Structure prediction request, 264 residues.
Amino acid sequence: MKETIRQYIRNLGADDVGFAAVSDYHRPRSPRIENFFPEAKSIIVVAYKELSTCESPHMQLAMNGRLDRYAVVRYNSYRICHFLETEFQATVLSVPGGYTVDLNKDPPKGVSALSLRPAAVAAVLGSFGRHNLVIHPVLGTRVTFTAVVTNLEMESDTRVTEDHCLHCNICVDNCPAGALNEEGRTDLRKCMEVSQPFGANSFLGYLRKFVNSSAEEQEGMLKSFTFLPFYQALSGAREYNCFNCQKLCPAGRHESVTKPAMAG
Prediction:
């Protein structure tokens, strides 16, 4: 059954597929999968290559490559779920690659119902790097994931303990936000201030200034170039202005996906 599913997903254009038993998925900050899917038995994690558009210094064009992938991935997720239901009478739950964060809390904690990176590691699709991204053995850091949780009983893929990180600290040294200074932790506030300068926090600041301005000042603010990037980010749903972790990591380059031999 696993190989039939794996081949079907690969035929859709996915770059890799991994399987994890729910019992092998560990993410202490997220809720237990059984809390929202009591019958869950396994997780199918699908890997997609991040295009070389992430290297573009033009951030809107770099982001456009990711938006292209989002469109394909969403369509594929539906087809995978439909296939599992039709062929195996499975019950399924799709987890998209993007924001799966439950903000319906007081206060909002920004915790995913299912965290895709730990799921990818559980499904043996890579290991965590110094930048806290998953490094795939072939695709390096230039990879993103989606998942389908199902009640089908499937064992995890064979465990591999290889560390794919080169421990070169290029990601740390080139993080413009200094968000990776503490090993094992990404300072999300620092990261988002740089990678999403027109995201929610900045937009709230703009709104505070707007509501406290006169009608004449408000009209000027809406016509200014300050407002337009916020409008663009909101209409595009996601707007990143930094891809350094993915584009600079040597493990994301085909010629450098294995560790160099140690000197001496």
Q: What stands out?
A: The longest helix spans residues 59-88.
